[in-house]
Every structure is written in C-alpha cells, then in structure tokens.
Amino acid sequence: MKHLIILATLSLMGCKKSELMNTRPFAAEKISQTASFIIDENITLVFPLFDAFEERKWEPSWNPKLIYPETEVIEVGTTFSIDGDNKEPSCLWRVIQFDPASYFIQYFVSTRHRDWTISVKCESEAENTQTKVSVTYTFIGLTPEGNELNRTHINQMYQQDLQDWKQAIDNYLFAS
C-alpha cells in the first residue's frame, strides 16, 4: 500500500516512471597521488617550511587567515581559511596530524564541493645534507562538481611532479 501511495504521489507531481528508473544517486570519487623531491638542506630547516604560516616564505601568494588558536602556532586543531576562486570562494583548513619528531604533517581541507587531505613527510638523506619531501593529496568529491574539480586539480598539481614546489623552496633557501 505504501508503494502505491508513493507512485501515485509521483505521478501527480508529473514524474514519469522512466525518469525515476534512470535517476542514479551521486557517486563520490576518491583520487590520490604522491610525488617526492629532494631539497639540498638539512631536514630541521626544510620540515618547518610546510607549516601553514611558514609556507608564505616560499609561496608569496599563500595567505592563510587564522581561525584557531589565537596565535600562528601549528598543532593538531590549528584551523585557518584561504581565499579560493569563483568555483570555491574559500577553503577551510585544519591540521589533523602533526608529528614534528617524525617530520610529518597532515591537513584536512573542506569546501562545498569536496574534501581532501594533504600529507607531507620529510626524510633525512645523504648524511643529513638533503631532505626527501613526499607529498600526497587525496581528494573526495562531495558533488559531481567536486569530482570534476578534483580531477582537474590533481592533474594540475602533479603536472610537474611538484618540481615547482622544489624550485620555489630552493629559491627561498638559496637566494643570495
């Protein structure tokens, strides 16, 4: 009886059975990619550059707006926003893992259309004279638009396998 009422209601609303049968629920997509690069400097100088506020030193367009805590300190729970573009006017960021002893930080980022994590792991190389930096982005679409934004963003982000990050960090560290 319940099914008859639903079908009758949908018929009165002008829906055709064929439209109902073709309606498919949204399917969220998850995509992930990692790239690594080497910085010719000690890990104790390199790892802090992935702190949300220290990143301004090597990426001049980076402008986080602190929400929590009251001072620019990195800890689990540090929350900030950044301005986006027309499709995503702002992004909310939160530190979800921070282990300076193992040189690891992970951010969770959220917008209306998608969520993602950014994981940065640094490892000492060549008798502490180099640092291997591994960066993983993992995106999950919350809407069809989010799925498309994720595909576009990951392709753009990893087009140069983060060698643009390496170059920017090298420019900061070694500019004289």
Can you describe what's shown?
By secondary structure, the chain is an alpha+beta fold. The chain has five helices and seven strands; from the N terminus they run ααβαββββββαα. The chain has a seven-stranded antiparallel beta sheet. The N terminus is likely disordered.
What layout of secondary structure does this protein have?
Layout: H1 2-12, H2 17-22, E1 30-39, H3 43-46, E2 65-68, E3 79-83, E4 90-99, E5 104-110, E6 114-125, E7 130-141, H4 144-157, H5 163-174
Antiparallel strand pairs: 1-7, 2-3, 3-4, 4-5, 5-6, 6-7
What's the mean pLDDT score?
89
Cα Rg: 22 Å
User: How many β-strand runs?
Assistant: 7
The percent range for helix content is: 25-40%
For the sheet with most strands, the description reads: 7 strands, antiparallel
Query: What is the molecular shape?
Result: globular
User: Would you list the SSEs in sequence order as H and E?
Assistant: HHEHEEEEEEHH
Number of helices: 5
Distance between the termini: 80 Å
As a percent range, the share of strand residues is: 25-35%
In short:
This protein is of the alpha+beta class and 176 residues long. The chain has helices at residues 2-12, 17-22, 43-46, 144-157, 163-174, and strands at residues 30-39, 65-68, 79-83, 90-99, 104-110, 114-125, 130-141. It starts with a helix and ends with a helix.
Tag the structure with descriptive keywords.
27% helix; seven-stranded antiparallel sheet; 176 residues; alpha+beta; 5 helices
